[in-house]
Design a protein that fits this description.
This protein is an alpha/beta fold. It contains twelve helices and ten strands. The protein has a five-stranded mixed β-sheet with strand order 4-5-7-6-10. α2 (53-62) packs across α3.
Length: 337
């Protein structure tokens, strides 16, 4: 049996809202990011990946010192900011303009604060992915896409790595995470050994670290990875994708939606879905009339106000909010906002 090469992605999936309110999610973000930096100080080979530009906006506003330390690690290629969007949203319900605004405001924040945009779309916990996304992603500077759902028993794909192509021909190189994005402890070793046998490619990307309520990897996880030697390396996703493109020219193409997972969520909490569509339409038409007023009457265009309105809409499109899978107390906050 030929041993595979593993790109191990230290991560901490964070649901800012789910079985808790957003204020608890905020504290989880701060604590998780601080823990990631502490682990980097203890192990010079450790690298960390986290998505959602709203998290970094919170950090910048609440703990400037923490934000500056993260910037240093980003410039060292030890911390990768994935996604390029405000949050990891539901990828079926929002209108097309909302996905564009996720990219617009998310990528702009990264460019202004880190000097570069993100190249990797990242919706690892969303329940499905509509077919227009490769077009929006590629036109937003994103070349790659990482997801986990639907799983193999829900959607048959030629393999975990493939070109995902929209009807207009736009494409991104997509990767379905095998097994889980929350591998920890000895589960890491078992996953490596399993994919040594099952993977159709010589290069595999695995995700490890405690998630949902944050946390991330711990020292024990790194020790387990290090016992496998050089073929199992701590990494960031961009290194894996570049290796795949360097080694392979026979990657299959998928021209389809990536569906379905947890279908029942699309009929849950219908009021939240109604408010989302109402908010989207109101924001879009308000911008149109504000533009007309600017052109015809020279009225001041409320650019900052519209940005804040959109950021609120986009945050509330987080997959566990919009899909209707959070606790009721969380929806009281959403309705109030």
């Amino acid at each position: 049996m030929v041993k595979k090469y593993f790109y191990m992605i230290g991560n901490a999936h964070i649901d800012p809202v789910w079985l808790w309110n957003w204020n608890e999610g905020l504290e989880v973000v701060l604590e998780t990011f601080r823990n990631a930096l502490k682990l980097m100080e203890k192990n010079s080979r450790y690298k960390f990946t986290a998505s959602s530009t709203i998290f970094y906006k919170w950090v910048k506003e609440l703990d400037k010192n923490l934000f500056n330390k993260i910037r240093e690690k980003v410039f060292e290629d030890r911390w990768y900011i994935a996604g390029g969007w405000i949050v990891e949203p539901d990828c079926n319900i929002p209108c097309g303009e909302s996905f564009v605004r996720h990219s617009l405001y998310g990528q702009r924040f990264l460019l202004e604060n880190f000097g570069k945009i993100c190249e990797i779309g990242y919706n690892i916990d969303s329940f499905g992915h509509n077919w227009m996304l490769p077009q929006i992603l590629s036109k937003s500077g994103i070349k790659y896409y990482i997801f986990m759902r639907p799983k193999p028993d829900e959607k048959t794909l030629p393999e975990n790595i493939f070109w995902w192509e929209s009807p207009d021909g736009s494409r991104v190189l997509a990767y379905r995470i095998p097994i889980s994005y929350t591998l920890t402890g000895e589960r890491i070793g078992r996953a490596i050994e399993e994919l040594d046998e099952k993977s159709s490619r010589d290069y595999v990307m695995l995700f490890y670290g405690r998630g949902d309520h944050g946390g991330g990897p711990v020292e024990e996880d790194l020790k387990i990875i290090e016992r496998y030697g050089e073929r199992v390396r701590m990494s960031i996703p961009i290194e894996f994708f570049k290796k795949i493109l360097e080694k392979y020219n026979d990657i299959p193409v998928v021209r389809d939606d990536l569906q379905h997972h947890a279908r029942g969520c699309y009929s849950s909490h219908s009021k939240i879905k109604y408010l989302n569509r109402l908010s989207e339409a109101t924001a879009i038409y308000s911008e149109i009339f504000a533009t007309i007023s600017k052109i015809l009457l020279d009225e001041k265009y409320p650019k900052k106000t519209f940005r804040e309105i959109w950021l609120n809409i986009l945050f509330n499109q987080f997959h566990d909010i919009l899909a209707g899978t959070s606790i009721w107390e969380a929806y009281e906050d959403v309705i109030a906002s």
